[in-house]
Design brief:
7-stranded mixed beta sheet; 460 residues; binds the ligand O=C(CO)[C@@H](O)[C@H](O)[C@H](O)[C@H](O)CO; FGGY_N; 34% helix; ATP binding; globular; Nucleotidyltransferase, domain 5; kinase; 24 strands; binds adenosine-5'-triphosphate; alpha/beta; 6-stranded mixed beta sheet; 2 domains; nucleotide-binding
């Protein structure tokens, strides 16, 4: 088929980088690819969660290499990714990126990514911090709180680098060869200390607390163009427009939502239930209102426990298997777990799977209930973890809340739902609403679609 104008969407996830090529005339995805980043790296802090930026960039390059000559048709690039996290860099890193191989020298020009799962800012530390002036609270793993922690404990990180942003902001800067980042409200709100209504950082509060406000990027509305591609790469022509980076959550919703009466459940590394609304209701624990598009908000129950919990379960089983002197590959184990026969027990095993705590309750962790002499099996355990994740989402965003907002259908997205039949069935059982499923390239597709919707003139 001959395509005229394509839009490239890139999603920098926690576990993988995904790309999608969208045909602007049909709004359909014509190509998708996903590459695992394997970026987790050791952290100087026991509760830290850091990723190696080079591994992320290499995964992105592998994705970009794969479509080949068709990339000549790309007219615009949209980037989204994991929210809340922060990375620091030097202008030189961005300026020399396209000339260099990754070396130990260039490594010094960029920090690790401190991710949204970073828990170093524990409750004790957070209580010392000023209260943000925003309808959004600032939790552990949020960029501004990580800066507060670094200022007190590792000030050299702040003095070594001039700029910071989310990982997706860094990638936008690299593509346009502009060291200084510009952020969208999606990502600024995910850092904390940002007033969405005023579209401004809480600079006064932060200055009083001795926060290095000069590090905070300029913020613009989502959908704005950041700049243009610095040079022809992977057949994408120099000068192609690049949008300001967006949040992966908002992009997974834009990719899937067709009506205001739909809610989206997205489960990949984390898990969330969300719906679009014009009003911010009185906040209840576990539900937050993130900026969406056009003065709308996303009411979100964002759980820290999603595919990462199942991943952790798989790793535990792998280590037991290896301790027993046996051997099975990770992929084979996933495959077996996903195809274990269902079991029926008069007393079912109940798994509370909150092994990562929750933002609104960071010190309560997982547990097993009702272990009997016949239900402690691999099948029951795995399915218990899967079901527990959905029950937790239901607790955070009760069905009544969805019904009150006029929701009539749930759209499921994210690779963990599409690959896991136990999770699919439990969503239907718990939420008792029709469930429709989306293909796994959701956020990468969504960021391309957002660019098309916000800038139709670029493709007419
Ligand atoms: N071989 C496998 N088979 C089935 N599921 C797997 C397999 N490997 C990983 N997973 C699950 O997929 C999850 C990661 O999903 P995905 O690659 O969509 O994440 P991501 O897009 O990087 O995350 P996010 O969008 O939240 O940042 C893991 O946490 C794990 O639960
Ligand atoms: O899952 C994520 C990263 O891969 C996050 O960006 C979530 O989307 C985010 O943590 C959450 O859903 C909103 O707080």
């Amino acid at each position: 088929m001959d395509f005229d104008k394509l839009i490239l969407g890139i999603d920098i996830g926690t576990s993988s980088v995904k790309i999608s090529l969208l045909d602007s005339s049909t709004s359909k995805s014509i190509y998708a690819k996903s590459v695992p980043t394997k970026a987790k790296t050791s952290s100087s802090h026991q509760k830290g969660d850091e990723q190696d930026v080079f591994n992320i960039l290499k995964a992105m390059q592998e994705c970009l290499k794969s479509p080949g000559k068709i990339m000549e048709k790309v007219k615009a690039i949209g980037i989204c990714g994991q929210m809340h996290g922060i990375v620091f860099w030097d202008e030189q890193f961005v300026q020399t990126f396209w000339d260099n191989e990754f070396t130990n020298e260039t490594k010094k020009l960029v920090s690790n990514l401190y991710t949204w799962q970073d828990a170093r800012t524990d409750l004790k530390f957070l209580t010392k911090l000023p209260k943000p002036r925003s309808h959004l609270k600032a939790y552990s793993g949020y960029g501004c709180n990580t800066i507060f922690w670094l200022k007190e404990n590792q000030p050299e990180i702040l003095s070594n680098f001039k700029h910071c942003g989310t990982i997706q902001d860094l990638i936008v800067s690299i593509l346009c060869n502009q060291g200084k980042p510009v952020m969208s409200t999606h990502n600024a709100a995910s850092w904390g200390y940002f007033d969405v209504i005023e579209c401004s950082w809480n600079t006064d509060i932060l200055i009083k607390a001795n926060f290095p406000v000069y590090l905070l990027p300029l913020v613009v509305q989502p959908g704005k163009i950041f700049g243009t591609l610095y040079e022809t790469i992977y057949h994408i022509p120099k000068g192609t427009v690049v949008g300001v980076a967006l949040g992966d959550l908002q992009c997974s919703v834009i990719a899937t939502l067709t009506s205001m009466t739909d809610a989206v459940i997205n489960i990949s590394t984390s898990a969330q239930v969300a719906f679009v609304t014009k009003i911010i209701e009185k906040q209840c624990d576990g539900v937050e209102y993130f900026p969406y598009y056009d003065n709308h908000f996303l009411a979100v129950a964002a759980s820290l426990n999603g595919g990462n919990v199942l991943d952790c379960f798989v790793r535990s089983v792998l280590s037991w298997v290896s301790a027993l002197g046996l051997n099975i590959t990770e992929d084979e184990l996933w495959n077996r777990l996903l195809h274990l026969p269902d079991e029926e027990h008069s007393t079912p095993l109940i798994v509370n799977p909150l092994i990562f705590g929750e933002r609104h309750d960071p010190t309560t962790f997982g547990s097993l209930i009702n272990v009997t002499n016949n239900n402690f099996t691999l099948s029951e355990l795995f399915s218990g973890f899967c079901k527990g994740l959905i029950n937790n989402l239901l607790k955070m965003m009760p069905r009544e809340m969805l019904l009150k907002a006029g929701i009539q259908r749930i759209i499921g997205s994210g690779s963990v739902i599409t690959r896991n039949h136990i999770i699919k069935k439990e969503i239907e059982n718990c939420f008792n609403l029709p469930l429709s499923l989306q293909m796994p390239e959701d956020s990468a597709f969504g960021v391309a679609l957002a660019l098309l919707k916000n800038n139709p003139h670029l493709f007419s």
